[in-house]
Amino acid sequence: MTRSGQLHLNAFLMSVGHHEAAWRLPESDPYADLDVEHFKNLARIAERGRLDSLFLADGPVLWDQVGRRPSGVLEPTVLLTALAGATSHIGLIATASTTYNEPYNLARRFASLDIVSGGRAGWNIVTTAGLDAARNFNLDALPAHRERYQRAAEFVDVSLKLWNSWDDEAILADKERGVWGDDSKIYPPEHRGAYYSVAGALNVPRSAQGQPVLVQAGSSENGRNFAARYAEAVFTAHQTLTDATDFYDDLKRRAAEHGRDPDHIKILPGIVPLIGATVGEARELEVELNRLIRPEYALRTLADLLGVDQAELDLDEQLPAQLPEEEQIEGAKSRRTLVVNLGRRENLTVRELIARLGGGRGHLTFAGTPVQIADKIEHWYESGAADGFNIMPPVLPSGLDAFVDQVVPILQERGRFRTEYTGRTLREHYGLPRPANRNRALVQVP
Q1: pLDDT value at position 445?
Q2: Pairing state of beta strands 121-126 and 91-97?
Q3: How large is the average pLDDT for residues 304-315?
Q4: Nearest CA to 188 among 104, 102, 96?
Q5: The dihedral of CA 209, 211, 216, 222: what is its sign?
Q6: How far apart are CA 324 and CA 303, in angstroms?
Q7: Once rounded to an integer, what is the mean pLDDT over residues 342-356?
């Protein structure tokens, strides 16, 4: 199929790279995960490439074993506030959980980031899988999958009320009359629901883009329904073009069923680009990184994802024929399905599967020249499988440098990506409208 228009490209930043063994390369700084200057450098590289946004993952738990890879994770809204001062255009997307936060505090944090950055903030909404996180918040068990999404829906509804609790014209700053603001243009949520009770208005006004962009990353049935209702960008993982196209079509259809414009939900799969001057050079990097993986660490993570005991996995055998049914899994349902399908489809041993997951944890990994990387991205876009990509460099900063300096110019020459920013807010980068104040419509007399 022929498709016009331009791609959206985000930089997904993770310490010294997405490959779990990237920190072991001679060039890598194993302390970079806690170095703000490291992230400022990455932000400037991404902005040099005119990318839409930076994206930071997060979870309220110590990820994995600290022996495996750099494990320090700075709170993302704090880190992005520092990066806002080091950049001027690129969007700033942070992950935050609806399961282990309260709407007022979180809405305030994102509204503050949005103000500080001049309207460049986005919230990646997650419901947080994993028993370890639950145990950090006075819980002995992980809340059920469906309940987490029900809670998330009310959480977002309350957040939207809070972000709209100030009219755009509420601030008067009338020195002569001594009137700073108009109380009639403040709209307290007065919300009382199944999970939350929030009475008062936010103490932060609306931003240049109205409210943060809503991003979502779940691909389960509950996740798709949630995304179709709320998300303006969706980060997703697919190994095949067919799976990606099916997901794309399904989510656009669901968005339309919710009365939304399907163009106002941007679908952005992850891609881990291993870039070399030749195919051989790119594959050498891939082989070297995979050689540095310590499978004993990855084995535990894989067992947890699959819902089996680690002893049931043999590194040199394929996945067990019998695995727990999907209905028995309460966390990371869509990622588990992807990993199982990958192992079954390609008859991979557990050792081979671990290597395939080492670079992107299930996201598409592709080794090639800059032209081949650009071709892959453009082909998925033209095939209706994506509106763009979440770029996940295996090694940082070199992988991001290579993408920005070698792949982006090819996409620009083909007319597939901007050569300059034409707007200043994240909504403008994504081509999304500034939302009207829904509270004003409810309380104002025409």
Answers
A1: 41
A2: parallel
A3: 80
A4: 104
A5: negative
A6: 11
A7: 79
Tokens (6 digits) for 366: 């592709």
Residue-wise pLDDT for 138-149, tens only, equals: 988 888 888 999
DSSP 4-46: -S--EEEEEE-TT-SSTTGGGSTT--TTGGG-HHHHHHHHHHH
Q: Which helix (H) or strand (E) holds 123?
A: strand 121-126
- Name 128's Cβ contacts closer than 8 Å, sequence gap at least 6: 59, 60, 97, 98, 99, 100, 148
Cα separation, 134 vs 141, in Å, equals 6
Grouping H, G, I as helix, E, B as strand and the rest as coil, residue 401 is helix
- 415 vs 48: CA distance, rounded Å: 17
Residue 170 pLDDT > 90: yes
pLDDT tens sequence across 247-265: 999 999 999 999 999 999 9
* CA 365-235-204 angle, 5° bins: 140
pLDDT at 360: 65
H/E stretch holding 270 reads strand 266-275
Q: How far is it between the farthest Cα atoms of the chain?
A: 79
User: Out of 49-53, 242-246, 279-283, 438-442, which region has the weakest mean confidence (pLDDT)?
Assistant: 438-442
Residue type, 349: T
Mention every residue, 6+ apart, whose C-beta is less than 8 A from residue 264: 232, 255, 432, 433
pLDDT for position 446: 43
Amino acid identity, residue 284? E
- The strand pair at 121-126 and 213-216 is best described as parallel
- Average pLDDT over the chain reads 91
Report how far residue 222's alpha carbon sits from residue 149's, in angstroms, rounded to the nearest whole number.
7
Classify residue 278 as left (phi > 0), alpha (psi -120 to 50) or beta: beta
SS3 100: coil
Any idea what the Cα angle at residue 115 is, between residues 426 and 393, rounded to 5°? Answer: 40
Within 175-321, strands assigned E span 179-181, 191-192, 197-198, 213-216, 233-236, 266-275
Q: What is the mean pLDDT of residues 145-160?
A: 95
Q: Is 365 exposed, middle or buried (0-12, 13-18, 19+ CB in 10 A)?
A: buried
Chain Cα centroid distance, residue 135: 24
DSSP-derived 3-state class of residue 365 = strand
Residues forming a β-bridge with 97: 126
Task: Please give the average per-residue pLDDT across 310-331, as a whole number.
Answer: 72
Torsion sign across C-alpha atoms 25, 62, 215, 353: positive
Query: How many Å apart are CA 422 and CA 288, to the nearest integer?
Result: 40
> Tokens 């947890």 appear where?
304
